[in-house]
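Structure request: IS701 family transposase, Streptomyces cinereospinus.
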Amino acid sequence: MFDQIMARIAVRFGRVEARASARAYLLGLLSKAERKNCWQLAEQAGHARPGPMQRLLRYARWDADAVRDDLRAYAVEHLGTDGGVLIVDETGFVKKGRASAGVQRQYTGTAGRIENSQVGVFLAYATSRGRALVDRQLYLPESSWCTDPGRRQAAGIPDEIEFATKPRLAWEMIAAALDAGVEAPWVTGDEAYGQDPQLRARLEEAGTGYVMAVACSTRVRINSGLTPVRADTAAGRLPVTAWQRWSAGSGAKGPRHYDWAWIHIGTDEHRHLLVRRNRTTDELAFCLCWSPTTATLAELVRVAGVRWSAEECFQAAKGQVGLDHYQVRHWTSWHRHITLAMLALAFLTAVAASAAPNRPADSHHPTRGNDPITLTVPEIRHLLATVFPAPALTAARLLHWSTWRRRHQATARRSHYRRRGTNEPAG
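Returned structure:
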């Protein structure tokens, strides 16, 4: 299967050196290397220096968007089935300094607070067979980047890249997936995307259903009423009989059961407010829903529950294939590393799906007797270390890389001290 995925993307690399580096890079991402940056991937591949890996991300001639298209098609080919869902979500990459493309102090859910970071907007594809990240866009803040030509040029941001809100980036990725023939009747996302009326309108124009989280203060019209009411007010008026208990999918401790209710809103027959109530705390959460055809409450609950798949993808991508291990600043380099990491994760997910084609993809599904659970992404990556062993590490090569790292660190330290000395005020 690895040879097949390499054959699929080989045409994207014009030179044999770049193809070889891409193969080594992917194998490094799948390896047990502690960190998945160019230095450790080069050492893992048996290279004498990180140059080939660095050239792959920065200077080699290949189109990361074309590889992204191959990745998306690969994911659909191996995971596609009825009821597919596209999920829009974002994740942060905490960084130091101000030179990395798109970096600034901004809120990121990764840290749970405002940090100096980059934010990537991602599109995930989820079915009963598995889930994978299939597209990505680096968010470019308007005030600190879009209006600073010098900073843009230093980070390699193309002139045609203009400011776009995160929901706009999400729509561009959704539209590209639909245009490519991805069969996904549903889209879901959190409040950052559900609160955007333009994104919801574009989905309706495309005939794609959605279950999008919104705030409790969102106002909706009930029974064609002239005066809209807050979502939490509408939920408070529901009778006890309106609530039904459904599972929103399985979590680490088994099925996630909540109480659910839905309220018909507006004049559209297929438009609803979906309300989720926590069985322990009574905390409420809300989603605006629309579908081109009649949908059941069970179907809306299923789609709402799939939204957590994006977080699972981020955890797997960062923990297993080094999505956030990069040490690059350039716009092109960021998209190239992220794309290759997404491809590595899609490969692991496809292997897991093919290993259990007739069993639920949910690893928490009950098993019989002593039957093991289905193969997971971490377990498959662990097994691949035997299939793709790293080149023998001799004492001479180990010392060579130790010397290389320490020389680089000494150069970086001198540069840092020189910069600090230049900025110190005269005594």
